[in-house]
Amino acid sequence: MSTYQFKIKIPEGRPEYLEKIIQEWKTIVREERNGISSVLQEQIADLWKLEEAAPKIYLVPFNWDSIFIYAPIQNQEILKFIRTFIANKFPDIAVQEKRFNEFDLKAYAIFDKEAEFNKETEFTYSEEVLVAIKKMGDCIEKYFFDFNIPGDNREDMHEFNWDESYTSWKGHIEYRTEKKIFPYHHYFITVNRMYSFVESEFYYVEFEDLDNFSVFFAFRLRNTPLTKINSFLDYHFKQNSKDFLTFLDSNLVEYVFLYNEKVIKIVEKWFLKKEKLKSIPVEIQNQFVEANSNLRELVDKQITTNKWEDLVEAFEINERYYPIGITLNQQQTRKFFSFLYKETNRTKIPFLSEKDTKKLLRYGLSFSENPNGTYYFLSLDKKNKPIQIIYYCFSELNGKTFSKYEKESIAKFLKFNFENFKDIPLHKIKNSMRSDRRPKKMYFEISRYLPF
User: Fold this and answer.
1) In what order do the strands lie in the sheet with 66-73?
2) pTM, whole model, 2 decimals?
3) Which whole number is the average pLDDT over 423-452?
4) Residue 438, CB half-sphere, CA atoms under 13 Å: how many?
Protein backbone atom coordinates (compact mmCIF):
# COMPACT_ATOMS: atom_id res chain seq x y z
CA MET A 1 0.00 0.00 0.00
CA SER A 2 1.23 3.48 -0.86
CA THR A 3 0.21 6.96 0.26
CA TYR A 4 -0.72 9.33 -2.55
CA GLN A 5 -1.03 13.10 -2.43
CA PHE A 6 -3.38 14.80 -4.87
CA LYS A 7 -2.80 18.57 -5.00
CA ILE A 8 -5.58 20.73 -6.44
CA LYS A 9 -4.26 24.20 -7.26
CA ILE A 10 -7.15 26.65 -6.79
CA PRO A 11 -7.28 29.14 -9.71
CA GLU A 12 -7.25 32.88 -8.95
CA GLY A 13 -10.72 33.38 -10.39
CA ARG A 14 -12.58 30.68 -8.47
CA PRO A 15 -15.49 29.06 -10.33
CA GLU A 16 -18.81 29.42 -8.49
CA TYR A 17 -19.02 25.70 -7.64
CA LEU A 18 -15.52 25.80 -6.11
CA GLU A 19 -16.28 28.89 -4.04
CA LYS A 20 -19.34 27.11 -2.65
CA ILE A 21 -17.28 24.02 -1.74
CA ILE A 22 -14.62 26.09 0.03
CA GLN A 23 -17.20 28.00 2.09
CA GLU A 24 -18.92 24.75 3.09
CA TRP A 25 -15.60 23.23 4.09
CA LYS A 26 -14.68 26.27 6.21
CA THR A 27 -17.90 25.82 8.16
CA ILE A 28 -17.28 22.09 8.61
CA VAL A 29 -13.66 22.53 9.74
CA ARG A 30 -14.79 24.77 12.61
CA GLU A 31 -17.07 22.05 13.86
CA GLU A 32 -15.16 18.83 13.37
CA ARG A 33 -11.40 18.31 13.07
CA ASN A 34 -11.47 15.63 10.39
CA GLY A 35 -14.70 16.84 8.84
CA ILE A 36 -13.57 17.23 5.23
CA SER A 37 -12.13 13.73 4.93
CA SER A 38 -15.33 12.36 6.52
CA VAL A 39 -17.50 14.20 4.00
CA LEU A 40 -15.50 12.91 1.04
CA GLN A 41 -15.43 9.43 2.57
CA GLU A 42 -19.24 9.34 2.61
CA GLN A 43 -19.40 10.49 -1.00
CA ILE A 44 -16.90 7.81 -2.03
CA ALA A 45 -18.80 5.12 -0.11
CA ASP A 46 -22.01 6.04 -1.98
CA LEU A 47 -20.25 5.48 -5.30
CA TRP A 48 -18.24 2.36 -4.41
CA LYS A 49 -19.77 -1.04 -5.13
CA LEU A 50 -19.30 -2.30 -1.55
CA GLU A 51 -19.66 0.50 1.01
CA GLU A 52 -17.65 -1.05 3.85
CA ALA A 53 -14.73 -1.74 1.49
CA ALA A 54 -14.70 1.75 -0.05
CA PRO A 55 -11.34 3.51 -0.59
CA LYS A 56 -10.22 5.69 2.31
CA ILE A 57 -9.23 9.32 2.57
CA TYR A 58 -6.71 10.17 5.28
CA LEU A 59 -6.76 13.94 5.40
CA VAL A 60 -7.81 16.98 3.35
CA PRO A 61 -5.92 20.11 4.45
CA PHE A 62 -6.62 23.24 2.42
CA ASN A 63 -5.75 26.92 2.39
CA TRP A 64 -6.57 29.88 0.18
CA ASP A 65 -4.79 28.57 -2.92
CA SER A 66 -4.43 24.77 -2.56
CA ILE A 67 -6.31 21.64 -1.57
CA PHE A 68 -4.47 18.45 -0.67
CA ILE A 69 -6.09 15.04 -0.59
CA TYR A 70 -4.12 12.19 1.00
CA ALA A 71 -5.26 8.64 0.33
CA PRO A 72 -3.88 5.12 0.87
CA ILE A 73 -3.81 3.26 -2.45
CA GLN A 74 -3.81 -0.55 -2.43
CA ASN A 75 -4.06 -1.24 -6.15
CA GLN A 76 -4.55 0.25 -9.61
CA GLU A 77 -8.34 -0.09 -9.44
CA ILE A 78 -8.53 2.16 -6.37
CA LEU A 79 -6.02 4.62 -7.87
CA LYS A 80 -8.10 4.92 -11.02
CA PHE A 81 -11.27 5.41 -8.96
CA ILE A 82 -9.76 8.17 -6.78
CA ARG A 83 -8.42 9.96 -9.87
CA THR A 84 -11.86 9.86 -11.48
CA PHE A 85 -13.56 10.97 -8.26
CA ILE A 86 -11.28 14.02 -7.91
CA ALA A 87 -11.58 14.91 -11.61
CA ASN A 88 -15.38 14.92 -11.34
CA LYS A 89 -15.29 16.84 -8.04
CA PHE A 90 -12.98 19.52 -9.45
CA PRO A 91 -13.54 19.67 -13.22
CA ASP A 92 -11.15 21.67 -15.41
CA ILE A 93 -8.58 22.05 -12.60
CA ALA A 94 -5.13 20.52 -12.95
CA VAL A 95 -4.28 17.93 -10.29
CA GLN A 96 -0.68 17.22 -9.29
CA GLU A 97 -0.12 13.66 -8.10
CA LYS A 98 2.67 12.33 -5.90
CA ARG A 99 3.36 8.89 -4.48
CA PHE A 100 5.18 8.94 -1.17
CA ASN A 101 8.08 6.72 -0.22
CA GLU A 102 9.04 5.51 3.26
CA PHE A 103 12.03 7.85 3.08
CA ASP A 104 10.04 11.03 2.39
CA LEU A 105 10.15 13.55 5.20
CA LYS A 106 6.92 13.25 7.16
CA ALA A 107 7.02 16.11 9.64
CA TYR A 108 4.98 14.64 12.48
CA ALA A 109 6.67 11.24 12.35
CA ILE A 110 10.10 12.89 12.60
CA PHE A 111 8.99 15.20 15.39
CA ASP A 112 7.36 12.40 17.40
CA LYS A 113 10.32 10.07 16.87
CA GLU A 114 12.64 12.61 18.44
CA ALA A 115 10.22 13.06 21.34
CA GLU A 116 10.30 9.32 22.08
CA PHE A 117 13.93 9.60 23.14
CA ASN A 118 13.17 12.31 25.66
CA LYS A 119 10.21 11.19 27.74
CA GLU A 120 12.33 11.08 30.87
CA THR A 121 14.12 13.96 32.54
CA GLU A 122 17.53 12.31 32.35
CA PHE A 123 17.65 12.70 28.56
CA THR A 124 19.08 16.17 27.94
CA TYR A 125 19.71 18.37 24.91
CA SER A 126 22.37 20.94 24.12
CA GLU A 127 21.35 24.51 23.36
CA GLU A 128 22.02 23.90 19.64
CA VAL A 129 19.66 20.91 19.54
CA LEU A 130 16.96 22.81 21.42
CA VAL A 131 17.09 25.58 18.79
CA ALA A 132 16.77 23.01 15.99
CA ILE A 133 13.81 21.32 17.69
CA LYS A 134 12.07 24.67 18.15
CA LYS A 135 12.55 25.29 14.44
CA MET A 136 10.73 22.02 13.69
CA GLY A 137 7.96 22.91 16.15
CA ASP A 138 7.50 26.38 14.65
CA CYS A 139 7.29 24.88 11.16
CA ILE A 140 4.58 22.42 12.22
CA GLU A 141 2.67 25.13 14.09
CA LYS A 142 2.67 27.30 10.97
CA TYR A 143 1.25 24.38 9.01
CA PHE A 144 -1.76 24.25 11.34
CA PHE A 145 -2.47 27.94 10.90
CA ASP A 146 -1.99 27.83 7.12
CA PHE A 147 -4.47 24.98 6.67
CA ASN A 148 -7.28 26.10 8.98
CA ILE A 149 -7.29 23.11 11.34
CA PRO A 150 -8.71 22.51 13.80
CA GLY A 151 -11.71 24.65 14.78
CA ASP A 152 -12.48 26.07 18.21
CA ASN A 153 -15.91 24.66 19.01
CA ARG A 154 -15.47 20.92 19.07
CA GLU A 155 -17.73 19.29 21.67
CA ASP A 156 -14.85 17.49 23.40
CA MET A 157 -13.11 20.81 24.03
CA HIS A 158 -15.91 22.57 25.94
CA GLU A 159 -14.74 21.11 29.25
CA PHE A 160 -11.38 22.90 29.02
CA ASN A 161 -10.59 25.95 31.10
CA TRP A 162 -8.69 27.69 28.32
CA ASP A 163 -6.90 30.28 30.45
CA GLU A 164 -5.76 27.65 32.94
CA SER A 165 -4.69 25.22 30.20
CA TYR A 166 -2.76 27.90 28.32
CA THR A 167 -0.92 28.98 31.48
CA SER A 168 -0.21 25.36 32.38
CA TRP A 169 1.11 24.65 28.91
CA LYS A 170 3.43 27.66 28.93
CA GLY A 171 4.77 26.59 32.31
CA HIS A 172 5.27 23.06 31.00
CA ILE A 173 7.32 24.31 28.06
CA GLU A 174 9.43 26.58 30.26
CA TYR A 175 10.13 23.72 32.67
CA ARG A 176 11.15 21.26 29.96
CA THR A 177 13.29 23.87 28.21
CA GLU A 178 15.04 24.76 31.47
CA LYS A 179 15.75 21.07 32.13
CA LYS A 180 16.93 20.65 28.53
CA ILE A 181 14.54 17.81 27.74
CA PHE A 182 12.23 17.63 24.75
CA PRO A 183 10.55 21.06 24.93
CA TYR A 184 7.20 20.18 23.34
CA HIS A 185 4.28 18.25 24.74
CA HIS A 186 1.91 16.37 22.42
CA TYR A 187 -0.30 19.46 22.21
CA PHE A 188 -0.07 23.22 22.41
CA ILE A 189 -2.67 25.89 23.05
CA THR A 190 -2.98 29.38 21.62
CA VAL A 191 -5.76 31.76 22.70
CA ASN A 192 -8.74 29.36 22.80
CA ARG A 193 -7.62 26.62 20.47
CA MET A 194 -5.93 23.33 21.15
CA TYR A 195 -3.56 21.86 18.57
CA SER A 196 -2.28 18.29 18.69
CA PHE A 197 0.78 16.75 17.05
CA VAL A 198 -0.61 13.47 15.76
CA GLU A 199 0.77 10.81 13.44
CA SER A 200 -2.31 10.94 11.19
CA GLU A 201 -1.36 14.40 9.91
CA PHE A 202 0.16 14.04 6.45
CA TYR A 203 2.49 16.98 6.25
CA TYR A 204 5.52 16.24 4.08
CA VAL A 205 8.47 18.61 3.88
CA GLU A 206 9.63 19.18 0.30
CA PHE A 207 13.18 19.75 -0.96
CA GLU A 208 12.15 23.06 -2.53
CA ASP A 209 11.52 24.44 0.97
CA LEU A 210 15.22 24.07 1.60
CA ASP A 211 15.51 25.71 5.03
CA ASN A 212 12.79 23.59 6.66
CA PHE A 213 13.80 20.53 4.63
CA SER A 214 17.32 20.81 6.05
CA VAL A 215 16.32 20.61 9.73
CA PHE A 216 13.73 17.82 9.23
CA PHE A 217 16.22 15.93 7.05
CA ALA A 218 18.87 16.17 9.79
CA PHE A 219 16.56 14.76 12.48
CA ARG A 220 15.31 12.04 10.10
CA LEU A 221 18.87 11.00 9.27
CA ARG A 222 19.78 11.13 12.97
CA ASN A 223 17.01 8.62 13.76
CA THR A 224 17.49 6.37 10.70
CA PRO A 225 18.90 2.89 11.48
CA LEU A 226 22.51 2.57 10.31
CA THR A 227 21.55 -0.25 7.92
CA LYS A 228 19.08 2.03 6.11
CA ILE A 229 21.16 5.19 5.78
CA ASN A 230 22.52 4.31 2.32
CA SER A 231 19.00 3.59 1.01
CA PHE A 232 17.73 6.82 2.54
CA LEU A 233 20.50 8.86 0.87
CA ASP A 234 20.12 7.02 -2.45
CA TYR A 235 16.41 7.85 -2.53
CA HIS A 236 16.92 11.59 -1.98
CA PHE A 237 19.85 11.66 -4.41
CA LYS A 238 17.62 10.11 -7.08
CA GLN A 239 14.87 12.66 -6.34
CA ASN A 240 17.09 15.74 -6.40
CA SER A 241 20.15 14.71 -8.45
CA LYS A 242 23.42 16.62 -8.05
CA ASP A 243 21.74 19.40 -6.03
CA PHE A 244 21.44 16.87 -3.22
CA LEU A 245 25.22 16.46 -2.94
CA THR A 246 25.66 20.20 -2.42
CA PHE A 247 22.80 20.17 0.07
CA LEU A 248 24.17 17.17 2.00
CA ASP A 249 27.62 18.72 2.25
CA SER A 250 26.21 21.88 3.84
CA ASN A 251 23.76 19.91 6.01
CA LEU A 252 26.58 17.93 7.62
CA VAL A 253 28.24 21.20 8.58
CA GLU A 254 25.08 23.00 9.72
CA TYR A 255 23.70 20.13 11.83
CA VAL A 256 26.85 18.24 12.73
CA PHE A 257 25.85 18.42 16.42
CA LEU A 258 22.95 16.03 15.69
CA TYR A 259 25.03 13.22 14.23
CA ASN A 260 27.15 10.62 15.97
CA GLU A 261 30.46 9.40 14.54
CA LYS A 262 29.02 6.24 12.96
CA VAL A 263 26.40 8.20 11.01
CA ILE A 264 29.02 10.66 9.75
CA LYS A 265 31.31 7.85 8.58
CA ILE A 266 28.53 6.12 6.65
CA VAL A 267 27.36 9.38 5.07
CA GLU A 268 30.85 10.49 4.06
CA LYS A 269 31.64 7.08 2.58
CA TRP A 270 28.42 7.29 0.56
CA PHE A 271 29.26 10.87 -0.43
CA LEU A 272 32.71 9.89 -1.68
CA LYS A 273 31.30 7.17 -3.92
CA LYS A 274 28.79 9.55 -5.48
CA GLU A 275 31.43 12.24 -6.03
CA LYS A 276 33.71 9.78 -7.81
CA LEU A 277 30.80 8.44 -9.81
CA LYS A 278 30.33 11.89 -11.38
CA SER A 279 33.67 11.62 -13.20
CA ILE A 280 32.82 8.25 -14.80
CA PRO A 281 31.04 8.09 -18.21
CA VAL A 282 27.25 8.08 -17.97
CA GLU A 283 26.84 4.61 -19.45
CA ILE A 284 29.19 3.20 -16.82
CA GLN A 285 27.35 5.09 -14.06
CA ASN A 286 24.09 3.45 -15.07
CA GLN A 287 25.67 0.01 -15.06
CA PHE A 288 27.21 0.69 -11.67
CA VAL A 289 23.84 1.65 -10.17
CA GLU A 290 22.26 -1.52 -11.52
CA ALA A 291 25.04 -3.75 -10.22
CA ASN A 292 25.91 -1.82 -7.09
CA SER A 293 25.99 -4.93 -4.92
CA ASN A 294 28.45 -6.76 -7.16
CA LEU A 295 30.80 -4.75 -9.34
CA ARG A 296 32.27 -7.91 -10.88
CA GLU A 297 29.05 -8.29 -12.89
CA LEU A 298 30.23 -5.36 -14.99
CA VAL A 299 32.99 -7.53 -16.45
CA ASP A 300 30.38 -9.59 -18.27
CA LYS A 301 29.10 -6.46 -19.97
CA GLN A 302 32.39 -6.11 -21.88
CA ILE A 303 33.68 -2.96 -20.28
CA THR A 304 37.08 -2.02 -21.62
CA THR A 305 40.16 -2.71 -19.53
CA ASN A 306 40.80 0.96 -18.77
CA LYS A 307 37.22 1.66 -17.72
CA TRP A 308 37.13 -1.44 -15.56
CA GLU A 309 40.38 -0.38 -13.87
CA ASP A 310 38.87 3.02 -13.09
CA LEU A 311 35.74 1.43 -11.66
CA VAL A 312 37.65 -0.99 -9.49
CA GLU A 313 39.91 1.69 -8.09
CA ALA A 314 36.99 4.05 -7.51
CA PHE A 315 34.57 1.67 -5.85
CA GLU A 316 35.93 -1.78 -5.10
CA ILE A 317 37.28 -0.95 -1.66
CA ASN A 318 37.54 -3.78 0.79
CA GLU A 319 34.79 -3.48 3.41
CA ARG A 320 37.45 -3.30 6.12
CA TYR A 321 38.56 0.04 4.73
CA TYR A 322 37.02 3.49 5.13
CA PRO A 323 37.51 5.89 2.20
CA ILE A 324 38.72 9.36 3.12
CA GLY A 325 36.43 12.00 1.66
CA ILE A 326 38.54 14.35 -0.47
CA THR A 327 37.67 16.57 -3.42
CA LEU A 328 40.53 15.13 -5.51
CA ASN A 329 39.72 12.58 -8.19
CA GLN A 330 41.80 9.43 -8.77
CA GLN A 331 44.33 11.07 -11.04
CA GLN A 332 44.79 14.04 -8.71
CA THR A 333 45.19 11.74 -5.69
CA ARG A 334 47.90 9.76 -7.47
CA LYS A 335 49.64 12.98 -8.45
CA PHE A 336 49.69 14.16 -4.83
CA PHE A 337 51.21 10.92 -3.55
CA SER A 338 53.81 10.95 -6.33
CA PHE A 339 55.79 13.50 -4.27
CA LEU A 340 56.80 10.55 -2.07
CA TYR A 341 58.89 9.03 -4.86
CA LYS A 342 59.63 12.13 -6.96
CA GLU A 343 61.01 14.36 -4.22
CA THR A 344 64.27 13.72 -2.36
CA ASN A 345 64.53 17.05 -0.51
CA ARG A 346 68.15 17.37 -1.66
CA THR A 347 69.11 13.91 -0.44
CA LYS A 348 70.02 10.77 -2.39
CA ILE A 349 66.77 8.81 -2.03
CA PRO A 350 63.05 9.69 -2.15
CA PHE A 351 60.69 9.43 0.81
CA LEU A 352 59.22 6.14 -0.55
CA SER A 353 59.73 4.01 -3.65
CA GLU A 354 57.25 4.25 -6.51
CA LYS A 355 56.44 0.54 -6.12
CA ASP A 356 55.55 0.92 -2.44
CA THR A 357 53.55 4.08 -3.11
CA LYS A 358 51.33 2.18 -5.54
CA LYS A 359 50.89 -0.63 -3.02
CA LEU A 360 49.99 1.97 -0.43
CA LEU A 361 47.10 3.15 -2.62
CA ARG A 362 45.85 -0.34 -3.53
CA TYR A 363 42.52 0.44 -1.80
CA GLY A 364 42.59 4.09 -2.74
CA LEU A 365 42.97 6.79 -0.10
CA SER A 366 41.44 4.83 2.76
CA PHE A 367 42.32 3.40 6.14
CA SER A 368 41.42 0.30 8.09
CA GLU A 369 40.33 0.40 11.73
CA ASN A 370 42.24 -2.88 12.15
CA PRO A 371 45.73 -2.44 10.63
CA ASN A 372 46.89 -5.54 8.79
CA GLY A 373 50.46 -5.25 10.06
CA THR A 374 51.96 -3.99 6.79
CA TYR A 375 53.89 -0.77 7.41
CA TYR A 376 55.96 1.28 4.97
CA PHE A 377 59.12 3.03 6.08
CA LEU A 378 59.52 6.64 5.00
CA SER A 379 63.06 7.85 4.44
CA LEU A 380 63.20 10.54 7.12
CA ASP A 381 65.83 11.94 9.44
CA LYS A 382 65.90 14.85 11.83
CA LYS A 383 68.48 16.83 9.91
CA ASN A 384 67.73 16.58 6.16
CA LYS A 385 64.20 15.16 5.96
CA PRO A 386 62.39 15.88 9.23
CA ILE A 387 59.02 14.27 9.89
CA GLN A 388 57.47 17.76 9.94
CA ILE A 389 57.62 17.72 6.11
CA ILE A 390 55.10 14.86 6.05
CA TYR A 391 52.89 16.59 8.61
CA TYR A 392 52.88 19.71 6.47
CA CYS A 393 52.20 17.90 3.17
CA PHE A 394 49.27 15.96 4.59
CA SER A 395 47.85 19.06 6.25
CA GLU A 396 47.72 20.54 2.74
CA LEU A 397 45.88 17.41 1.59
CA ASN A 398 43.47 17.90 4.50
CA GLY A 399 42.55 21.24 2.94
CA LYS A 400 41.04 19.29 0.03
CA THR A 401 38.65 17.20 2.15
CA PHE A 402 34.87 17.42 2.36
CA SER A 403 34.77 18.18 6.08
CA LYS A 404 36.94 18.91 9.11
CA TYR A 405 36.28 15.38 10.42
CA GLU A 406 38.54 13.92 7.72
CA LYS A 407 41.61 15.27 9.52
CA GLU A 408 41.38 12.38 11.99
CA SER A 409 40.99 9.94 9.09
CA ILE A 410 44.19 11.27 7.49
CA ALA A 411 45.94 10.93 10.85
CA LYS A 412 44.81 7.29 10.98
CA PHE A 413 46.08 6.78 7.43
CA LEU A 414 49.55 7.89 8.56
CA LYS A 415 49.51 5.93 11.82
CA PHE A 416 48.20 2.68 10.31
CA ASN A 417 50.42 2.68 7.20
CA PHE A 418 53.85 4.05 8.16
CA GLU A 419 56.45 2.69 10.54
CA ASN A 420 57.47 6.27 11.34
CA PHE A 421 54.00 7.09 12.76
CA LYS A 422 52.67 3.85 14.26
CA ASP A 423 53.93 4.57 17.78
CA ILE A 424 52.85 8.21 17.85
CA PRO A 425 49.49 8.87 19.59
CA LEU A 426 46.72 9.62 17.13
CA HIS A 427 45.83 12.96 18.71
CA LYS A 428 49.46 14.11 18.43
CA ILE A 429 49.55 13.25 14.71
CA LYS A 430 46.29 15.10 14.20
CA ASN A 431 47.45 18.19 16.11
CA SER A 432 50.81 18.22 14.32
CA MET A 433 49.23 18.54 10.89
CA ARG A 434 49.41 22.32 10.59
CA SER A 435 49.48 24.14 7.26
CA ASP A 436 50.83 27.24 8.98
CA ARG A 437 54.02 25.40 9.97
CA ARG A 438 56.02 24.87 6.79
CA PRO A 439 59.39 23.34 7.75
CA LYS A 440 62.39 25.59 7.11
CA LYS A 441 64.35 22.70 5.58
CA MET A 442 61.66 21.77 3.04
CA TYR A 443 63.11 22.34 -0.43
CA PHE A 444 60.13 21.60 -2.67
CA GLU A 445 56.61 22.98 -3.06
CA ILE A 446 53.83 20.51 -2.27
CA SER A 447 51.41 22.86 -4.05
CA ARG A 448 52.88 21.51 -7.32
CA TYR A 449 51.17 18.20 -6.51
CA LEU A 450 47.76 19.64 -5.71
CA PRO A 451 45.16 21.28 -7.95
CA PHE A 452 44.37 24.93 -7.32
Assistant:
1) 66-73, 2-9, 95-99
2) 0.55
3) 89
4) 7
